[in-house]
Structure formats: structure tokens, C-alpha cells
Design goal:
The chain has about 300 residues and is α/β, with parallel strands linked by helices. Helices cover about 35% and strands about 15% of the residues. The longest helix is centred in the first third of the chain and has 15 residues.
Length: about 300
């Protein structure tokens, strides 16, 4: 859950998740719909699907995985997660390298190289991280490195004067610390997706993302308004939202529209009282609640 999500945002979801799925066995026995429902709001739903697959694989495995290489054979487990589990849970002296560790090591060594992306930077600093690992307490060492980057060696406004390893830092007082590491970011891509708000007989028209569509498969969201009205360009949105997903900046104006004469494929009428029981895209659930409270939602 902590991958791609801040800890403070993740914690309430984690507590709810652990009450429902306290162990791999419980998770393995659950339906995918139930798994996704309990992940709702965290985004990047491929993580939930991979965790579900992982639970099933773990339950079936014999013997159980312990080493980094063992864990990497399971679904959804890569270098970072396998090293974290192996070092923290089983004491294997392997380094965990994430963005926080990369940032800390780059600044400590005064490394001013440019990297084409996070993956390139992780690959570059992994040998150094492995060399520095505390052989007696690798789990504590890895957690300390990640915590240092997360709480002190911050991306913006690092707390250098409070840093316990300041005396070893090759960047402090010599280089603009915030400029390191130098990782090239993808250019922001601006996208606009008009959405339709269509209510009829205490039901709302929603689009269900097809099963084969990747990480958002099976979720409901407000329909794309394009094609549902021939006069969309003449209409005014009742609400307009903007959000970011990785390097994409998505603007989603929402229009109140009349029901279409025929139901497009993968579009479904959902009773308003059943909205809590379906898996909705997190932002769309918030928008539905906001729209439900508005009085100016007249078609046109």
C-alpha cells in the first residue's frame, strides 16, 4: 500500500484492510471484487490484484519463501519488496533501494550525475547500498535509511541542520542539496475527458471498465460524455475537476445530461442506494457525493 501512496494517506486503508484480511489465507480465499472494494480510494489497482495473486501463490507454496530470490518468484514481487521482506522478516543482508534511499545516497556522496528515470537511479545506487548494509541488523539498517530520506533528507527543504549524518555529507555546504539527485521527469501530458451525470428513476448511469482494461478493470466511473450528446460543445459543465496520475494532468468537466435512448456497451443503471456496494474510482465517488448535494444539476 505504501508504494505510490503516502503513509499518512495509507494508514486508514491499511487498518480497514487488516481487519478484513488479517493473513494471506483469508486474502487468498476472498473474491477479487471484495479485494478491490477494500482497496477503493488508494488507486493503482494492479497492486491489489497482484497482492491477491501473491496471497494465493504463498498459500500454495511449500516450502514458504524466505530469501530475496525466493520472494522474487512470486506474483507482484520485485527487487524492492523482496529485499524488504527478506531483510526485515528473515534477516538476509540485502539492501532495499527506493526513492528515499537514492536521494540520501546521492546527497551523501555528492553525486551530480543525471539519470533518465527512477529505475535508472535505483540501478546506479544499488551496489553502494549493498556495500553499506549492516550485516548484523540489515532490516533495521534498511528501515533507518528509508526513514532518513522520508523524514530528514526530504525532496524539498531537507532538514540538513538536524541530520545525524551531516558530517559525512558531501553535498552539505557545497552543492544546492535540493538539486540532487538529478532525475529527468516525463513532460506533463494534458488530457481532457468530459463526463456525464445522468440520473433517472433514482438510478445513475455509470460506465464499468472492462475486465481486460488493466489496473482499473471492473471499476465504475462517470461515463465519458463524448458521444452521449451531439450538443456537448454548447453545454456548460456543472462541475469541473482536475487530477494528476503520474505525468498526466487530467481535466474532467462534468455535464448534466438526459438519458440516452439506448444503453451503450458497458454502461449500467445503478440504483443510488447501491452506490456504496460497488467499486467506484476514488475521485469519482467523491464527485458523486459532491454532485448529489448540489441543487444546480439541471440538464443543459
Amino acid at each position: 500500500m505504501a508504494q505510490q501512496t503516502q503513509i499518512k494517506t495509507m494508514l486508514p486503508y491499511f487498518e480497514r484492510w487488516m481487519k478484513r484480511f488479517p493473513d494471506f489465507e483469508t486474502l487468498a480465499d476472498a473474491l477479487e471484487e471484495d479485494v478491490l472494494k477494500h482497496w477503493e480510494g488508494l488507486g493503482y489497482y494492479s497492486r491489489a490484484r497482484n497482492l491477491h495473486k501473491l496471497a494465493k501463490a504463498y498459500v500454495e507454496s511449500d516450502p514458504k519463501p524466505k530469501t530475496r530470490e525466493d520472494w522474487k518468484t512470486l506474483p507482484g514481487i520485485g527487487p524492492y519488496t523482496s529485499a524488504a521482506i527478506a531483510s526485515i522478516s528473515f534477516g538476509e543482508p540485502v539492501a532495499v533501494v527506493d526513492g528515499n534511499v537514492v536521494r540520501t545516497l546521492a546527497r551523501l556522496t555528492g553525486d551530480e550525475r543525471s539519470f533518465t528515470g527512477n529505475g535508472d537511479a535505483v540501478k546506479a545506487f544499488t551496489p553502494l547500498a549493498e556495500e553499506l548494509i549492516n550485516l548484523e541488523n540489515p532490516g533495521d539498517h534498511n528501515q533507518a535509511m528509508m526513514e532518513l530520506g522520508a523524514t530528514v533528507c526530504l525532496k524539498r527543504k531537507p532538514l540538513c541542520t538536524l541530520c545525524h549524518v551531516q558530517q559525512f555529507c558531501q553535498s552539505y555546504g557545497r552543492i544546492q542539496v535540493e538539486s540532487i539527485p538529478r532525475i529527468e521527469r516525463k513532460a506533463t501530458e494534458h488530457i481532457e475527458i468530459p463526463r456525464a451525470w445522468i440520473i433517472q428513476n433514482a438510478q445513475i448511469l455509470l460506465y464499468r471498465i472492462p475486465k481486460e482494461s488493466g489496473q482499473l478493470a471492473g471499476q465504475y466511473e462517470l461515463p465519458n460524455a463524448t458521444g452521449l450528446s451531439s450538443t456537448l460543445e454548447k453545454m456548460k459543465p456543472i462541475l469541473s475537476k482536475t487530477r494528476s496520475i503520474t505525468h498526466r494532468r487530467i481535466k474532467e468537466p462534468i455535464y448534466h445530461m438526459e438519458a440516452p435512448e439506448s444503453l451503450p456497451q458497458d454502461h449500467h443503471w445503478i440504483s443510488l442506494k447501491d452506490l456504496e456496494s460497488i467499486t467506484l474510482s476514488g475521485p469519482h465517488r467523491r464527485w458523486l457525493k459532491e454532485l448529489a448535494d448540489r441543487a444546480d444539476t439541471k440538464p443543459g
